[in-house]
Structures are given as C-alpha cells and as structure tokens.
Design brief:
By secondary structure, the chain is mostly helical. It has 6 helices and no strands.
C-alpha cells in the first residue's frame, strides 16, 4: 500500500463512522418520535401525537425519499389527520406513503395494501366510489 493511501485511511474511517453515526442518530430520533406519537395517539392526545409524528416525519425525510420509515411517518400523519377531520391533507399523504411503500417494499407488501385500503375508505367516505374501487 502506498504511503499517501495509508495516511488517508484513518481520515476515511472517521468520515465513514461520522456518517454512520448521523444516520443512526436520525434513525434513533425517528424511533423516539414515532413511539411518542403512537403512545399519545393511543391515549387520545391527538394534538400531541400530531406534533411527535410531525417531528418523526422531519427525521424520516432525512433518511431518503424511498425509506419505508418515511412512508410509515406519512401513514401516521394521515391517521391523526383522520381523527382530527383534516380531510384536505389525508389524500395527498396516503398517496405519497403508498408510492414510497411500493418502491421500498414491493407492490404486494401488506403496508402498501393497508395504505391503499385506507385511501379507498377515504374515497368511499367522500363519495368517490370510482376512485376507491381499483384500490381494494
């Protein structure tokens, strides 16, 4: 191994470890916010759940556009929006979550099926049966 490469290896190793640490911290923060949102939601504290899940969504956005945690965060937001009757936001969030789930996990994964079912239920509730039928 040449001397220049030998001298660069510690720097490269530190850079890799730093990048891994940032990714772990982002993932760890996502877990923290996701769990806090779930607990708040289960206890009926919907504004608190929305706040925690919104912070989790911010963390998930940093993990990449095709990361399934981003889709999970979007699905969580749609769930709390449904509880709060924020209908304008729900459709876009479910559609984006479904697109990510399909890319990340494939077209036959249960998370995609569940999200499409929720979107179909939304369409049915809004009287948009023709849009709901292909999703179920």
């Amino acid at each position: 191994m040449n001397h220049k490469l030998n001298c660069m290896l510690p720097t490269i190793a530190v850079a890799c470890l730093s990048a891994a640490n940032v990714a772990f911290t982002q993932s760890s923060n996502w877990d923290k916010y996701n769990n806090a949102g779930r607990i708040a939601y289960e206890e009926g504290h919907y504004d608190e759940a929305e706040k925690s899940w919104s912070l989790g969504l911010e963390e998930a956005e940093k993990l990449g556009p095709d990361d399934s945690r981003l889709a999970t965060s979007l699905h969580n937001m749609a769930t709390v929006y449904s509880t709060q009757s924020k209908l304008a936001e729900i459709e876009q969030v479910y559609k984006r979550a479904a697109t990510i789930y399909e890319k990340a996990q494939g077209h036959s994964h249960r998370d995609l099926a569940y999200t499409l079912n929720k979107l179909a239920l939304l369409y049915m509730g809004l009287g948009r049966k023709a849009e709901a039928e292909p999703l179920v």
